[in-house]
Amino acid sequence: MRDNVTWKIGGEAGFGIMSAGNVLAKTFTRAGYHIFAVNDYPSLIRGGHNVVSVRIGSTEFSGINRDLHILVALNSETVTIHKDELNENALVLFDPAEKEWTAADFPKSVRLLPVPLRDIINNLHADMVMRNTVVLGASVALLGAPFEALFSVIHDQFIHKGAEVVDQNEKIARAGFDYIKEHFADATDMHLSPGTITEKQLVINGSEAVGLGAVRAGLKFAAIYPMTPINAIITFLADHAKELGIVYKQPEDEIAGITMAIGASVAGARSMVATSGGGFALQVEGLSLAGMIEVPIVIDLGMRVGPATGMPTYTEQGELLFAIHAGHGEFARIILAPGDVEEAYHLTIDAFNLADKFQIPVFVLTDKYLNESQWCMKLSHFQKTVAIDRGKLIMGDTGKPEGEFQRYDLTPADGVSPRSVPGTKNGQYYANSYEHDGLGHVTDQAKMRSDMVEKRLRKVTSIEAMVPPPKTYGDEKAEITFVTWGTTKGAVVSAMEQMRHEGKKVSVVTYPWIYPFPAEATKALLAGSARVIAVEQNATGQLCKLIRAETGIDITEKFLKYDGRPWLPEEILSRLQ
């Protein structure tokens, strides 16, 4: 039996590739396993090669790796594209009606499992698209799991369509399961060790984790224009808006989205936007407006391959410096960069509290890999009490004479002024994009301008005083220290674990809180390492530039990847000399 197995399904768009990966992930999560699922698809409305890889393990792991144990091919193209990825003695499930593959077609020794998918579907008088359900049943059998684990997911997924639909899907999945048991009963090499997780888990992607964190943090308004890769947060918020007591609006464009969210925030509602690089480029003027009128707003910036349209369905970390420097003028902001769904959930909650506390924009910097990949996460993580900090928000009488509420009071300590919402007794003020005095009246006086700039920038000093240190993994006194950020963390930590297993002293430094930058903590962490290597998913080493600017440390050894595909731990290990 194996501790973990990687399963991959491929085929043409429209044949339920993504759905099959999702169902398999849920099946094994319910059976007590750790899972991680990642997709790969082109930017096409129809057609093109779609792939989902699911790693399943009885022990915890850090994301996907290069191993491929089971390849499920819904067309011959899948075998052609992925046969070089297969491990020795891997299993290849295919329909011989597509093509009769032989051992000579593969560079390594594999076991071929011809399953007549079309014949099974025709015999059950089903639609050909349901071949994905046949292979799900077959895959569960190959992994040594009981059919009941799959059926529970099928039942929950289709019961809203009626018992007849559930029965049909059960029969089709059962046919695939039984075919393996009858014709390939000895194919037990990929059977998994028993799952060890007894607590209920959720299968959740990064966008859903951000959405759930936002709701737990008290989100009341979201204006989001669809754009890959943040679309799953739209589905989550729109589908559950009524029961969650929130307002979701799809604006006509990203400019409208951020200005609507700013308006909602001025009115006292916790609000957010979500977009990708091209959409955020349109929102930059609105970002500066938020900086000038000191309104809290959370921005989920889901990075993808650029510039311009780039490769919209692939992943990259190319917008760190853009997020730091976006906007005209100088004003405070915070940038958080989760590396997995657990961090995405918790950092989004932090983002709303920080936005209110300092009355600034706060970014949750995500990427396609995080937003669309699926992790399992224990339900208890979402059930813990969430503290809500509205900062200096006044909900009752301000106690000021009418017309004298100093919304933009200079506040020498932290630069954060008391904030009222429309309707607050004696709390009225002017909010506009011009420079202003404490009441919000437009001004161009030199001293007031200087005072207001300094007031707003005092927030930066206040924020810097509470910036947490980066997260560290591995050995304190390391021979090699990897420095990384965002979702690249998973591959780097996995590579570190393999190196430590070989007896090497290795550590990883990663930055969930990336700006303002924890400079002094970074200096201390990097001082004791003989060799520092930065691992990023961009072409210019943007974290390295930030570290050099903030600390003076010049990391000269960089592992950079910018082909749109996420890092694999094996790629990192192969670059070491």
Provide an overview of this structure.
By secondary structure, the chain is an alpha/beta fold. The chain folds into 3 domains: 4-183, Pyruvate-ferredoxin oxidoreductase, PFOR, domain III (Pyruvate-ferredoxin Oxidoreductase, domain 3); 203-382, Rossmann fold (3-Layer(aba) Sandwich), CATH 3.40.50; 471-575, 3-Layer(aba) Sandwich (Rossmann fold), CATH 3.40.50.920. 37% of the residues lie in helices and 19% in strands. It has helices at residues 17-30, 76-82, 117-123, 131-142, 147-158, 163-183, 206-216, 231-244, 254-266, 277-293, 320-325, 341-358, 368-372, 446-464, 488-501, 519-527, 542-551, 569-575, and strands spanning 4-12, 34-40, 49-57, 70-73, 90-94, 110-114, 201-205, 221-223, 247-249, 271-275, 297-303, 334-336, 361-367, 374-378, 393-394, 419-420, 471-474, 480-484, 506-510, 513-515, 531-536, 557-560. The strands form 4 sheets. The protein has an 8-stranded mixed beta sheet, with helices on both faces. Strands 9-8-10-11-13-12-20 form a 7-stranded mixed beta sheet, sandwiched between helices. It is globular, with a radius of gyration of 26 Å. The relative contact order is 0.09. The mean pLDDT is 96.
Structural features:
577 residues, alpha/beta, Pyruvate-ferredoxin Oxidoreductase, domain 3, Rossmann fold, 8-stranded mixed β-sheet, 7-stranded mixed β-sheet
Give a short summary of the structure.
The protein has 577 residues and is an alpha/beta fold.
